[in-house]
Specification:
- This protein is mostly beta strands.
- The chain is about 10% helix and about 40% strand.
- The chain has an 8-stranded antiparallel sheet with strand order 5-4-7-8-1-2-3-6, with no helix packed on it.
- Strand 7 and strand 8 form a beta hairpin.
- The longest helix has 14 residues.
Length: about 120
């Protein structure tokens, strides 16, 4: 009985960490740095962003990130800076369509990429 109760509470907490109507956006890591000595880097931990309309929620950012939004032609349509510790960002409501979302740490050679619809 205690085991079932523990499992129920664990699932309840896990489900409550994101909004019910939110869509989960998987973020892929892109690292264009060639591996040293021919050995690939260890895979990074996957990162997910929660999207609800034009409001996005993510795990706290440990450093400053540049947020870049590219249209289907690869043109930058929006750019902003997310300070370290950010958990929410809001895109302008005037944007609509399919976009590539990039989160680029300011002092790094890699970035996170995901695809969104607004």
């Amino acid at each position: 009985m205690v085991r079932k109760l523990f499992l129920f509470v664990f699932l309840l907490i896990g489900v409550g960490s994101f909004s019910y109507g939110a869509q989960q956006i998987p973020m892929q890591i892109i690292d264009q740095t060639p591996p040293l000595g021919g050995h690939p880097y260890a895979p990074y931990r996957p990162w997910f962003i929660s999207q609800e309309s034009n409001v996005f929620t993510l795990a706290t950012t440990p450093e400053d990130y540049t947020l870049v939004l590219l249209d289907e032609d690869g043109e930058i349509v929006y750019s902003d800076t997310l300070p370290s510790g950010s958990t929410i960002f809001v895109l302008p409501s005037t944007l609509s369509g399919s976009y590539e979302l990039r989160l680029v740490p300011l002092a790094s050679t890699y970035y996170y990429r995901g695809y969104i619809n607004l």
